[in-house]
Write a structure and sequence with these properties.
With 313 residues, the protein is α/β, with parallel strands linked by helices. The chain is elongated.
Length: 313
């Protein structure tokens, strides 16, 4: 935001949650936009602020889309567990993507400078929403720590003609990767964390994870396994971009079969920790050779829903 003060073509949007989402440092550079009378006891309000806040996710989403279509840039941050409000707003952006209004316009047209950038916190809500047929120009990124979040956000803000959804928690957490390793990991979209495992290239089991809390849970489980079963060869695979799980023929971010098999093997059990619906991981990986050995530990609606995918999980 500080670097953009001269250009003044970037805004932060959110439903009165900038501070609660731990983005309050932005107020040291620019306050909230406020058109009414300013009073002595007002905090972080200004007639020329770059932060747009109002307690309506729909309005924030409309502001962001309109702002982007004028050739400018923006980021929408929302605390995602307010489901009654954010779920309809996500429906709006899904409809926006599905119509391909961004993708079908000429790439050099000034009004398509960037696609909507969204941060949802904490990290478990997004994948509990109803599954929708998304545009190929959508991506979902789950950052396991602060450095990967910085790298993911940098890539999203530099992207064009994409709808980017970043899923991240807002509580203090462990820092797993230094900045260089985080950039390399996010560029690949998924990778083996050799420092966490002991498989030496031939694992007995693959412990996979996507998201900050599932990563913490997986690494805790791995530490228990390595302490109590030291002869068990464990591989840790962390996924930042869920679309890498799809075949390359289905999504531009998808790994080719050889790269996928190099991560998840062709015949070893895979325990996948994920806080969304388990069937989403199964849908993304059903074409893969080792799909039958992938067991997803995720969210089940009210603990009673039973489907073939749930039973397989």
């Amino acid at each position: 935001m500080k670097l953009n003060l001269e250009s003044r073509n970037f805004r932060l949007f959110g439903p009165d949650e900038t501070a609660s989402n731990r983005l309050q440092a932005v107020y040291s550079v620019t306050p909230k936009m406020w058109e009414a009378e300013l009073r002595p006891d007002d905090e972080n309000l200004s007639h020329d602020g770059r932060v747009m806040e109002v307690l309506s996710e729909h309005l924030c989403q409309g502001w962001l889309e309109g702002y982007l279509l004028t050739g400018r840039h923006g980021l929408f941050s929302c605390y995602s567990h307010r489901r009654l409000n954010i779920q309809p707003a996500c429906q709006v952006v899904e409809d926006y993507a599905r119509t391909d209004r961004v993708a079908e316009l000429p790439a050099d047209l000034p009004c398509v400078a960037a696609g909507p950038q969204r941060i949802l916190t904490p990290g478990s809500w997004l994948h509990r929403s109803r599954d929708k047929q998304e545009s190929r120009n959508c991506a979902r990124a789950l950052a396991p720590d602060a450095n990967t979040l910085l790298s993911v956000t940098d890539r999203c803000l530099r992207s064009r003609n994409y709808v980017n959804v970043i899923v991240a928690g807002k509580q203090q957490d462990w820092q797993w990767l230094n900045m260089d390793a985080a950039i390399q990991h996010c560029t690949a979209g998924a990778g083996i964390w050799h420092w966490a495992g002991n498989d030496d290239g031939d694992p007995d089991v693959v412990m996979a994870c996507a998201g900050d809390v599932p990563t913490l849970e997986t690494l805790a489980a791995v530490s228990i396994l390595r302490r109590n079963l030291p002869d068990l060869k464990v591989r840790v695979v962390n996924v930042v971009d869920l679309m890498t799980l799809q075949s390359a023929s289905e999504h531009p971010h998808g790994l080719d079969d050889d790269s996928f098999d190099a991560l998840f093997t062709t015949n070893k059990p895979v325990i996948f920790a994920y806080h969304g619906y388990p069937w989403l991981i199964h849908r993304l990986t059903y074409r893969r050779r080792n799909h039958d050995n992938i067991h997803v530990r995720g969210y089940k609606e009210e603990g009673t829903t039973t489907t073939p995918f749930d039973m397989a999980s």
